[in-house]
Design goal:
The structure is a homodimer of 413-residue chains. Chain A is α/β, with parallel strands linked by helices and 413 residues long. The first copy, chain A, folds into 2 domains: 286 residues, 3-Layer(aba) Sandwich (Aminopeptidase), CATH 3.40.630.10; 114 residues, 2-Layer Sandwich (Alpha-Beta Plaits), CATH 3.30.70. Helices cover 35% and strands 20% of the residues of chain A.
Chain lengths: 413, 413
């Protein structure tokens, strides 16, 4: 009924990609459009050519390879993820999804299987958002969420623009940066980047959607006074106001949903000297939940808390929401097919919603979309400690391949 | 009975020194042993020479000028403060004390007054502690608190050592860096750097001592996880632990003394990215109180709170006290003489303890010491907003001069 990808070749291919941009700690430094990203793209294109795929590179550097189907008018199924990494990232992350898709194609070729639907494999540009913002840039442009001309102007810390870097590494292609036909579906495999699968003790995760989120920044402005002679009741301490909000951001999730998370990831304080009452403090907020109403409620609560903290400490508050993303629900038929694939392979699984953003969230506005998660041991990602055993990688890749296989060979779609 | 310094010349001299290292915002950038510090030292030495003083520069750059007294064996009275500033400091700070002492000498010379006691004027090296640590370095060495060879090795952010910079600007003198005779007393004038005098609506402050303090650093180490997929109960958030301690440091003073202050001046968090749970956070603490037992109690409370916060958040704690300074009580006879001087001049005054450290705190271990404060409007200091009206500067300088005059002319000491 199903297919089975080759364990040894799959692991070898994972190890091969992990050499490109490898760090001494065993991780990856393969920032979007850097030299290592060019190298891994070149390597990836070679693999696609070896498999006889028709290569297409679009104007934002997304790399597609197409394998034709047996039916001339059948809609293509799109499979992929991303090969770029964080500056000190791990070797699994999105690469696992790209390599799984490649192994699926190789298996079809080895076995001479002709699928009803054409199959496209894709490596999306700049999923990480570390060198250029926003994250999921290539898929966002392709899905029509972002304007390419605006994205071209985005620059890294050295002032290099995205467009210049695309040209420099030779990946500003001429294919259109939007779908030219209806797609049958999009499937993506990624590591979970969280501890849920491991905690539940299952082999793979079937992803039902992606949480919505709000990100923002708030700045408190008080008075930078000498910390010795300034009595407590004469102070306007920006850091104390910020600290109260940090504590509250940890508490807000407990008042909302079971899956709500709230984080202050970034803080900057000025003048940041042991002997001076902080006059200016900036913190970020981030809340995520599968329910957009809860995200909105978290936003309202953090703004309210910040206003109260500012009044209590006698400081000024400015705040702005820097990003809001609605939650995404994946297509039932993709979820069900992935679930069947896991079941038929005899892998234990659970259905879960993704707490992290993925290219699949953009694709869900283009076509029916599904995702599969591999275990992340200890929930670690974006670090050299990111780890998924080869057995767990294989189970996830095999589940992914069988899901794709079932959809690609279905004549009724 | 008393003397009266010349208002116009005093203001002009204050304005003259304020040009050396002036910033566009109207403040000073006269870091210890920088080119502007050399320039103001050169200017200061010229003034001392003009007044016929005997110049002495010691091996840590403290500049002394001596005016002989009428009695050959009478102990000298030492008057001074510091001319260095913070990188973005104000024009009053310690300069007010040095210029007041200079004007006092000029007034004695103008009026041909011979004092019983010799008078020395001093500009201490590196009171600010901004470029080289610790603060109050020159007076600390001279008073025997610090070892000069250790201080010579201290370096600024560019790696220049104190000794190299003393040599570079020509202020590594050959006079001994310790008292060569018994001193009659030390008097210092400084701006308050706090709001108490203004709040009480008085002209000048008579300082009774300097608070003790504890400074320290604590580091929390948790786990840097992706903020999306990591549930709240799987986190070890270093910043949340730190925030709880920041809140508590604001509350500890209210549980201790009326004059206790507690401050977190500095915070650093890693990796400091909106999308990552903070894995490492460092904060400083600072507590001050006139009562050393209360300082010790504050230290114990903050360490206890930090340990509890670390357990609550599941993070590791390391902490160390970086400095502890005992409180200082000034000499009753200096306090009383200063009080009489203010009263006789018809200035309103209050007695207060200094919340900031001063060179006078080191000098109190050498000789009977007293201090006078000028008003700091809005309590501002170490910024271009530092402001004391010329009238208030003059009242403080005149109180200082008359205090010095009474002691210097007292034959019974």
């Amino acid at each position: 009924m199903g297919i089975s990808i080759d364990y040894d070749r799959f692991v070898e291919t994972m190890q091969e990609q992990a050499k490109i941009g490898a760090t001494p700690e065993g991780g990856l430094n393969r920032l979007a459009l850097s030299d290592p990203d060019k190298a891994v793209r070149d390597w990836f294109v070679d693999q696609l050519i070896d498999e006889g795929l028709e290569i297409r590179i679009d104007a934002i550097g997304n790399v597609f390879g197409r394998r034709s189907g047996s039916h001339p008018n059948a809609a293509p199924i799109l499979l992929g993820s991303h090969l770029d990494s964080q500056p000190n990232g791990g070797i699994y992350d999105g690469a696992l999804g790209v390599i799984a898709a490649l192994e699926f194609i190789r298996t079809l070729n080895d076995e001479g299987i002709k699928t009803h639907h054409p199959i496209e494999i894709v490596n999306w540009t700049n999923e990480e958002g570390s060198r250029f913002q926003p994250a999921m840039q290539g898929s966002g442009v392709w899905a029509g969420t972002h304007d390419i001309d605006i994205q071209y102007e985005k620059s890294d810390e050295e002032g290099n623009t995205l467009e210049e870097e695309l040209e420099r590494i030779g990946y500003k292609g001429d294919a259109p940066t939007e779908p030219q036909e209806d797609y049958e579906s999009y499937l993506e495999l990624h590591v979970e980047q969280g501890p849920c699968l491991e905690n539940e003790g299952v082999d793979v995760g079937v992803v039902t959607g992606v949480v919505g989120f709000t990100w923002g920044e708030m700045n408190f402005t008080g008075e930078s006074d000498h910390s010795g002679p300034t009595p407590m009741d004469s102070r306007s301490d920006a850091l104390v106001a910020a600290a109260n909000v940090i504590s509250q951001i940890q508490r807000i999730p407990g008042m909302l949903g079971e899956r709500t998370v709230g984080t202050v990831g970034e803080i900057k304080s000025h003048p940041n000297s042991v002997n001076i009452v902080p006059g200016e403090t900036m913190i970020t907020w981030g809340f995520r939940d599968p329910d957009d109403d809860i995200v909105q409620k978290a936003y309202e609560m953090v703004v309210s808390e910040a206003k109260h903290a500012a009044v209590r400490e006698g400081v000024e508050l400015e705040y702005s929401e820097t990003m809001r993303s609605s939650s995404v629900e994946f297509a039932d038929r993709c979820i069900n097919t992935a679930q069947s694939a896991a079941d038929e392979l005899g892998y234990t699984s659970t259905q879960l919603i993704s707490g992290a953003g993925h290219d699949a969230a953009h694709l869900a506005s283009v076509t029916d979309t599904g995702m599969i998660f591999a275990i992340s041991e200890d929930g670690k990602s974006h670090s050299p400690q990111e780890y998924t055993s080869w057995e767990d990688c294989y189970k996830a890749a095999n589940t992914f391949s069988n899901t794709a296989y079932q959809i690609a060979t279905n004549h009724s779609n």
